[in-house]
Specification:
This protein has 331 residues and is α+β, with helices and mostly antiparallel strands. The protein has helices at 14-37, 40-66, 81-110, 118-147, 152-158, 162-190, 195-224, 230-241, 276-293, 307-315, and strands at residues 246-258, 261-270, 297-304, 327-329. It has a 4-stranded mixed sheet with strand order 1-2-3-4, sandwiched between helices. The relative contact order is 0.13. Residues 17-223 form the Cation efflux protein transmembrane domain.
Amino acid sequence: MAARQGGAGWREHIVIYAALAANIGIAIAKFIAASITGSSSMLTEGFHSVVDSGNQVLLLYGEHRAKKAPDRRHPFGYGRELYFWSFIVAILIFAAGAAFSMYEGYMHIVEPEELTSATVNYVVLGVAFVLEGASWVTAVREFSKAKGDVGWWQAVRESKDPSGFVVLFEDSAALSGLIVAALGVYLSHALNMPKIDGMASVVIGLILALVATLLAREAKGLLIGEPADPKAIVAIREIVAGHRGITAVNHVRTIHTSPESVFVAISADFDDDLPMGEAESMIETIEQALRDRMPHLSSIYIRPEKAEDTMEHEDAGDGLRGSGPALASGG
């Protein structure tokens, strides 16, 4: 699937900007409604929108930091900053969103507060649903473009750009929370049981906790390091194996250093009769062929290594070390 979720300039971050604009307006409206009606679920939803707004700011900051050029301290660039801030977003959803929602709900269950007006809540919830729905549609549309024919859950698991699916998850949780809040307000008034409003807050907190857990798992995988798409790895093997003088491709190992950059380490068995000078020229040719086919390969490392030596080191759990000289290229 595509590495990015949009085009250039502001369009590149349209999903995040749409979510940020919606959440700021929604948060203000929810707090006003909560102060008028005393609704626990509405207050919880207000803080939920504040947390989401902060999350969008962090994602934009992560996107900005990820574009910094490589330097001596970070020779592979700063691309993983986006993964780090995505992980922080997941933690904030859990700590500031889910925890507060469940705490607020519990307090209103223990000490229920009588609701004064349901009409204000319904109006605000309706407006919030429209704004949040518009943001959700934008996120779905952009992520759908990026995923292609891949299934939705598989696309999330395989995506190397967390910005799109983080906002998609947030908006989905927000819409679910709005529905729960509306049910809580309605049942509290219809049954004259203010505790139900607190229960709705707890349910919203559980929804946020679930979303935060899923996002944290995906962000952790990206932060630790995930390989390139299997099709790209197959293509790399084919390009290297297609050069005369290469008798076997032992392994191809890749890792994303950012959504758009991949480091690749290749172990190949060279013809024993190939002089060192010709081997060096061949490696340069292979590197150029790889970059022409896959421009996102930021750094390429090629090691001449006997197939049997590779098998020995693979058995030892270290397939990147070998006895042959290393011929490498940086991005």
